[in-house]
Amino acid sequence: MRFCPNTTDLDTNVTCTMNINNYKISYLLGVTHQFNYSHFQYDDNDETECIFNIQPSVKSVNFNNDIKYTTLHIEYDITLNNFVYTKQINVEDNIKLTTILS
After folding, report:
1. Which of 7, 23, 82, 99 is most open to solvent, judged by the fewest CB atoms within 10 Å of its CB?
2. What are the pLDDT tens digits along the chain (102 aa)?
3. Three-class SS of residue 100?
4. pTM beyond 0.85
5. Residue 44 CA, distance from chain mean position
6. How many CA atoms are closer than 13 Å to the CA of 40, on its beta-carbon side?
């Protein structure tokens, strides 16, 4: 159990790294989880500051969902499929970012 007094500011930053190329807002038990931590917040509200990284081995991601409360951090060339909206995108220098809407 964790005790958190009302007067204590909590760190609401969450950084997760995507391991596969299909973003889903939920996952099935027994199926490979898409993030390095299975408790990632799935961009559910603006109370948590989510920072979304992607493994370098993943060359494209199919989003099919908005990630409107999330900061997307791009460190290498990547294609974002069905990517519509995010709170913020941080892109490293000399990176090719391609977006494709279906």
Report:
1. 7
2. 556 667 767 666 777 777 777 776 666 555 666 666 665 555 566 677 788 888 898 999 988 777 888 889 999 999 999 988 888 999 999 999 998 886
3. strand
4. no
5. 11
6. 25
